[in-house]
Amino acid sequence: MGKILFWVVLIVGMMLLTRILSLHNAKNRSDRMANKAAPKRMARSTDPEQMVRCAHCGIHLPRSEAVLTGGQTWCSREHAKQGPRDHPST
User: How far apart are CA 24 and CA 41, in angstroms?
Assistant: First the structure.
């Protein structure tokens, strides 16, 4: 009976050790993949983008998405064609 118990404990211990090592290897692989992708993330600007207001409808949008015409900013070409409109002050 003692020999069977010894082998059962040994096999369970080996299975546990194998499981721990495979989890450790998987974590190392994911860390390496994250490190390869890190330069791409670092290239992006973390500075907030300036927001501008549409001269027609008053919506605020990022400057890169705005239409700049005639010294004013617009949310779309249609609003640039319609021209400015008075807005209540906020």
Answer: 25
Are 22 and 12 contacting, i.e. CB atoms less than 8 angstroms apart?
no
For the chain, give every domain's residue range.
Answer: 1-44, 45-90
More confident residue, 2 or 35: 2
Residue at token pair 């290897």:
25
The predicted model scores a pTM of 0.45
- CA–CA gap between residue 30 and residue 44 (Å, rounded): 22
What number of other Cβ atoms are within 10 A of residue 23's Cβ?
Answer: 10
**55 neighbors 82 (Cβ within 8 angstroms):** no
Please name the residue that has the structure tokens 């001269």: 55
Cβ 63 vs Cβ 51: under 8 Å: yes
